[in-house]
Design brief:
With 794 residues, this protein is α/β, with parallel strands linked by helices. It is built from 24 helices and 33 strands. The chain is globular, with a radius of gyration of 30 Å. The two termini are 55 Å apart.
């Protein structure tokens, strides 16, 4: 008897034990490891992963595997090992860790099947059912589950319902992935542009438009062109032979660039690690525009030359679109993976990797789980970014998982940044990572000149504009010279607060302890945490007087001010709101690249890795936003954002300039950010962390209690606090427990929140406390959230 061990796919650590099922004769696949199956669990049907071969349990009736859901394995042995590490390190069920590794389309249930609930030797009295029902049961026993529609044709809905009520069968959802459409491209055929296009432009303008697009771009993806030009016009061109359909042609890879002395020194240090199948972790600390991208490209090429594969991670989807063309020129078989791809496209990309047809994968955090089988290199660009941390279960950090995967697969990890995370730089100086440095920009680019603007002086002079006089003059000068400007403000919307000037009350979200932001484009109020929306009102709900006034400014207000100040300039905005529509983000970035935008206003999207040689001026509209947040990483984030945003200026021929607007011009962090003096900041901040025992000197576990009733949330947090003190050894002086206290945002999405923070040098001690907490029983309605080494404590 053939048996397999199955991990049931339920979000509970209680289901992490493997269950053994027999494989019935009608399942002919020889290798089931790594595939998902349907099995019977109690009175229900459940999905699970086959994780090992099993041995028959002598004397026990073995339940059968009901159905195999996948045509090939969706996980391999190394990815199972990685998932087990994640489950232990991030305190989540193993099935949840495995689920995070699979693309979203594989999780989507597409239909229903009829599954037998009784075995042939457990048959009920067959006189209870009709002869046609007995035939259906025989078919299910012999050949496994049937599609619901197919079963309906054999039996009919009433009899199927009777069988279900009597416990003979059940209906179960199943996964049926649509076969990805083949990649098709339009290309010019036998066509004379001088003779034929002029004729068409008068008689058939849509056909002429299609030919013009193909002349400009060479190959055009079929689905993209079919959205622009009617299919009837394209079919006419195909019939004439003026267009042809083709698969994507192999493109010759672009050659390497000549390296600077610093780049060459870095590559010389990296090469022994890249050539050998041995785990090594490197931190590449290079100033903005120092040429880290070319180092990444040549490191990837070296790995490919050695017969292995690479993953290139970036912190934002915008950067995948920005870098895709650069990387595809070097690596034509590049595959891109990120969460905003359409399901069919994402599944096709995943299959391409699974089938071994990709050497390089470019993407955001989730691309880390690309099913490469010969992994030799993982690169994390802008490794300091908080977006590498997932905020929902499993709460993993891509940097730590990348290091874990590289250890399992004996691969190299390169972490690059102009402003490394303090924990990473600390480990590099201690020797846990190998440190590489690039301190100069590549000619002709030079570090920009930086000026700090004291906004207190402007306020005293009665100026309340988001754009100071100095910044306005600098923008005007750039417009006259035909150069581009980026204005960075890490706050979306028009105004973050709307206040009543009579009673002082501000408009608050009814579900969260935060102010509603006014959005001019939708002419309404919006909560940036729960997405609650409210129409604009004229009268204060507290005092009934018409005295509501928006205060402060966000990207929409800065955009409006810039458009009013410079009416002839082409002004664009890049934030979550402007890029929400499909293709909008790509369009904005392309417009910036082709210099169709003179002034780009944006949130942190514009501060990360974008390389536009035409940008000679960057204005930091408000450098104080993150400075005073109640978070121990507030100073670090402020320096990183200011330095990274400043780094967008002066990357081409024109000298760059940065203007930093602040109400705290003397603040040491602002001064060090303006000087791009990371080392001084590190020395100051690391000493503060040492005194206060924050990472990297300790690990932190954050416990958040969520409940719709405030008093019950407080009581549950107090009970957890007491329980923690009971289990901690009284002599253990390396543990510090803080709280319980309301979270800085004390109410979110209708739930009150209390938090407890535990600091400890031993991470495994925190893990054991966390596991114990997960096993406790809590009042109905209470939710406990546990995060080890959180990136935010808000």
């Amino acid at each position: 008897m053939r048996c397999v061990q199955v991990l049931i796919n339920l979000p509970s650590s209680r289901m992490d034990n493997y269950l053994t099922y027999r494989v019935p004769d009608h399942i002919t696949e020889q290798e089931l490891f790594g595939r998902r199956v349907l099995v019977k669990l109690g009175a229900h049907v459940a999905e699970g992963y086959v994780v090992a071969d099993g041995a028959p349990d002598i004397g026990q009736a073995m339940k059968p595997v009901l159905q195999v859901l996948d045509q090939q394995a969706v996980i391999n042995a190394k990815m199972l090992d990685l998932a087990q590490w994640m489950a232990a390190d991030y305190l989540c069920p193993l099935s949840v860790a495995l689920g995070a590794m699979l693309p979203r389309p594989l999780h989507r249930k597409r239909g229903q099947v009829v599954v037998p609930l009784v075995e042939p030797d457990e048959r009920h009295d067959s006189r209870e059912i009709s002869s046609s029902a007995r035939e259906l049961m025989e078919q299910l026993w012999c050949f496994g589950p049937l599609g619901y529609q197919q079963a309906l044709t054999l039996l009919g809905q009433d009899e199927l319902q009777f069988l279900a009520e009597q416990g003979w069968i059940t209906l179960s959802s199943y996964y049926k992935m649509q076969t990805p459409l083949p990649e098709r491209y339009y290309a010019l055929g036998d066509f004379d542009p001088e003779k034929d296009e002029a004729l068409l432009s008068k008689k058939a303008p849509r056909q002429a438009e299609a030919l013009h697009i193909c002349r400009q771009k060479g190959l055009v993806e079929a689905r993209a062109l079919e959205k622009i030009v009617p299919k009837s016009s394209l079919e006419a061109l195909l019939k004439k032979g003026w267009l042809r359909l083709t698969a994507p042609a192999a493109v010759a890879a672009a050659g390497k660039q000549i390296l600077t002395a610093e780049q060459q020194a870095v590559m010389t240090a990296l090469e022994p690690s890249l050539e050998k199948s041995r785990f090594t972790a490197w931190l590449l600390h290079g100033v903005t525009a120092s040429g880290k991208t070319e180092v990444y490209l040549q490191a990837i090429q070296k790995v490919i030359d050695c017969g292995r594969q690479a993953i290139m991670l970036v912190p934002e989807i915008a950067l995948t679109r920005h870098l895709e063309q650069v990387y595809r020129l070097r690596f034509p078989d590049l595959v891109v993976l990120h969460s905003q791809m359409p399901d069919r496209e994402r599944y096709r990309a995943w299959l391409q990797i699974q089938d071994g047809r990709a050497q390089v994968v470019l993407g955001t955090r989730s691309a880390l789980f690309a099913p490469l089988t010969r992994l030799g290199l993982i690169i994390l660009d802008e490794e300091h970014e908080s977006t590498y941390k997932q905020e929902e279960t499993p709460r993993y950090h891509a940097r730590e998982v990348a290091l874990a995967r590289a250890r399992l697969e004996q691969a190299t990890v390169i972490m690059g940044s102009a402003t490394p995370a303090l924990e990473s730089y600390y480990k590099a100086l201690k020797g846990e990572y190998r440190l590489l440095t690039m301190s100069g920009r590549i000619a002709p680019a030079r570090l920009p000149r930086v000026t700090i603007i004291d906004m207190r002086r402007h306020y005293r002079q009665g100026r309340h504009s988001a754009i100071s006089a100095e910044l306005r003059e600098a923008i005007s000068a750039r417009l006259e010279q035909g150069q581009q400007t980026i204005l960075f403000l890490n706050r979306r919307g028009y105004s973050p607060v709307t206040i009543c000037r009579m009673c002082g009350q501000s408009l608050m979200c009814p579900h969260c302890a935060v102010s509603l932001s006014y959005h001019q484009d939708s002419n309404g109020y919006l909560c940036h945490y729960c997405d609650y929306q409210q129409e604009v009102i004229e009268v204060c709900p507290a005092c009934g007087l018409p005295a509501l006034s928006p205060l402060g400014y966000g990207t929409q207000k800065v955009e409006a001010e810039a458009a009013a100040l410079f009416p002839d300039a082409r002004v664009g905005r890049l934030d979550m709101d402007s890029s929400r529509k499909s293709g909008a983000q790509k369009s904005i970035l392309n417009s910036m690249k082709t210099r169709q935008i003179d002034i780009l206003i944006g949130t942190q999207m514009v501060a990360k890795g974008l390389d536009y040689p035409g940008v000679s001026l960057v204005g930091i509209v408000d450098a104080d936003i993150t400075l005073n947040l109640p978070d121990f990483r507030a100073y670090e984030r402020t320096l990183q954002l200011v330095v990274q945003a400043s780094g967008r200026a002066g990357r081409g021929q024109d000298p760059g300039e940065v203007l930093i607007q602040t109400y705290n011009p003397e603040h040491a962090v602002i001064q060090m950010a303006a000087a791009q003096d990371y080392e001084s900041f590190y020395r100051t901040e690391i000493e503060s962390r040492r005194v206060l025992q924050y990472p990297p000197f300790t690990h932190i576990m954050r416990i958040v209690v969520w409940d719709g009733q405030e008093k019950r949330a407080q009581q549950t947090a107090a009970d957890i606090f007491s329980w923690i003190y009971e289990i901690i050894d009284a002599k253990e002086d390396q543990i510090m427990v803080l709280g319980p206290a309301p979270c800085p945002i004390s109410r979110l999405r209708g739930k009150y929140r209390q938090q407890i923070m535990i600091k400890a040098q031993n991470r495994s001690l925190l893990s054991s406390i966390g596991l114990s907490l997960k096993r406790l029983k809590y009042p109905p309605g209470v939710r406990i959230e546990i995060d080890i080494d959180p990136m935010s404590t808000l």
